[in-house]
Design a protein that fits this description.
The protein is an alpha+beta fold and 261 residues long. It has a single domain (2-259), classed as Immunoglobulin-like, CATH 2.60.40.200. Helices cover 29% and strands 25% of the residues. The chain is built from 9 helices and 13 strands. Strands 1, 2, 3, 7, 8, 10, 11, 12 and 13 form a 9-stranded antiparallel β-sheet that branches. A two-stranded antiparallel ribbon has the order 4-5. Strands 6-9 form a two-stranded antiparallel ribbon. A hairpin with a 2-residue loop joins strand 4 and strand 5 (74-75). Helix 2 packs across helix 8 and helix 8 crosses helix 9. It is globular. Bound molecules: copper (II) ion. Copper (II) ion binds next to strand 7 and strand 11.
C-alpha cells in the first residue's frame, strides 16, 4: 500500500531527480543524511546520527545517551549498524511475535532489514563485523566519529530511504524473567539482552547539505525529505526518484524482500 502510493508520486519527483543527476560529476555522490535515534524495548535512550557522503567515503558522526552502562563490571558493548533492505522503519511492539516482551533483532528485521554496514570503532565495517563486541560503542553515553569507504548496497539504501541505524544492547535487569533466560538470536553464546535493539532511527536525507552551492538554477525544492518522526513515508517518497533511476537496484531490493521470511 505504502509502496504503491510512493511509486505513484514518483513522476512529480522524477524530473527533479533527473536534473540533479546531470549536475557536475564531482558532486554526483555527495550527500548528507541524518537519523534521530529513539528508544526500542523501553530503554529510554536517545541519539543522533549524521552521515556525510563524498563519493563512497562516508563520515559518520553519532552521539548517544541513556544506554545500558555496564556488563560484568565493564563498559557495556553496544554493537551498532546501518540496517538495509526492508521498509526503512523501526519496529513497533507488535514486532514481538514470540511475546516475551522483547523485540529481538530478528523480530525487528521486517521493519529495518539486515545489516548493511557495521558502525565499528576500528577495522572491518562490513556485516561480518556485526557482532564483534570489541569494536562496539561502549558504555551508556558516547560520541562516535569515523570516516570509511561505505559499501554500494548501503549507499543505495541511503539514497532509497531504506537505511535504518540500530544500536543494540539492553540492560538484562529490564527484561522479563522469561526473556532474561533466553539466548541471543544472533549469537547463541550471548544472552538475548546483549544483541537486542536499544535505539533505532530511520535515515533521511539532510536538507542542509542540499542547499550550499548545490545545483544552482534548478529551482528544486526538497520538501519530502524532512525528517518526520517515523521517517518511513518521507523516506520512501524521497527515494522514489532514485529507485526509478536505479531500476536494477530496486529489483534487487524487492527480490531480497521476497527471499525473506
Ligand atoms: Cu544492528
Amino acid at each position: 500500500m505504502n509502496k504503491k502510493s510512493a511509486f505513484l508520486m514518483v513522476p512529480a519527483l522524477a524530473a527533479g531527480a533527473l536534473m540533479l543527476s546531470v549536475s557536475p560529476a564531482s558532486a554526483a555522490g555527495d550527500a548528507s543524511y541524518q537519523a534521530t535515534l529513539g528508544p526500542i524495548n523501553g530503554t529510554g535512550a536517545s541519539g543522533t546520527v549524521m552521515i556525510s557522503l563524498n563519493g563512497s567515503q562516508a563520515t559518520v558522526t553519532e552521539d548517544v545517551t541513556g544506554l545500558a552502562a555496564t556488563f560484568g563490571g565493564k563498559p557495556y558493548p553496544h554493537v551498532q549498524h546501518i540496517h538495509i533492505g526492508a521498509k526503512g522503519m523501526c519496529p513497533t511492539t507488535a514486532a514481538d511475535t514470540n511475546k516475551d516482551g522483547v523485540i529481538s533483532t530478528t523480530e525487528g528485521a521486517p521493519a529495518y532489514g539486515a545489516i548493511g554496514t557495521t558502525l565499528s570503532t576500528s577495522g572491518d565495517t562490513s556485516p561480518a563485523a556485526g557482532t564483534d563486541l570489541a569494536v562496539a560503542g561502549m558504555g551508556p553515553t558516547y560520541h562516535y566519529e569515523r570516516t570509511f569507504t561505505m559499501n554500494a548496497k548501503t549507499i543505495a539504501a541511503l539514497q532509497a530511504g531504506t537505511a535504518v541505524v540500530v544500536v543494540h544492547g539492553l540492560d538484562p535487569a529490564t527484561l522479563s524473567a522469561t526473556a532474561q533466560k533466553e539466548k541471543s538470536d544472533l549469537v547463541p553464546s550471548l544472552p538475548l539482552a546483549a544483541t537486542s535493539p536499544a535505539l533505532c532511527g530511520p535515515v533521511v536525507a539532510s536538507q542542509m547539505a542540499e542547499m550550499p552551492g548545490g545545483a544552482p538554477g534548478t529551482g528544486i525544492t526538497h520538501t519530502a525529505a524532512t525528517g518526520t518522526a517515523n521517517g518511513s513515508e518521507a523516506g520512501l517518497i524521497a527515494g522514489g526518484g532514485a529507485l526509478l533511476l536505479a531500476a536494477g537496484g530496486a529489483l534487487a531490493w524487492r527480490r531480497r524482500l521476497a527471499a525473506k521470511d
